[in-house]
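Allow me, if you will, to draw on your knowledge of protein folds for a short while. I am sending you one protein, given as its amino acid sequence and as whole-number tokens for its backbone shapes. Kindly check, if you would, that the fold set down in the tokens agrees with what the sequence suggests. The record follows directly beneath this note:
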Amino acid sequence: MLIKTKFFGDVDIADDKIITLANGLLGFDEFKKYVILFDSEKSSGESISWFQSADEQTLALPVINPLLVKSDYNPMVDDDILAPLGETGEDGYFVLVTMRITPDPKEVSCNLKAPIIINPKTLLGRQIIVENEDYPIRYNIYDVVQKLKEKGGE
């Protein structure tokens, strides 16, 4: 499938890489199909990626694996919320959190309160609001990102 994007040009994505969010993202419920785009030269999964809409070329959100920024991240989620995503394999769900990029790098944050949960087996996903009261919408990650950059040699 050829996806037109504002930031990455035309990207050819295999149909088996398209993630479907039946409810869309919070605030973008009309867009249901997404792909994860990342720097192909640094595809270790230990960096910031982009959650790109296949339906709207201007919708691309920076995302990161929450375990990279908060190693004890363990959101409380009701099983009924995840049931529509289908049975998972032995690896379970894949979780991403959206990022807020600001002009001041020291204010970069991620949203631990509303993760995107994806079943890698069915490629069905859902953005949810977790019950954990200690997970903020704006979790500052500047120091963590700096350490990731140093580790990656940037």
Residues 44 and 72 are 20 Å apart (CA to CA). The chain has one domain: 2-152.
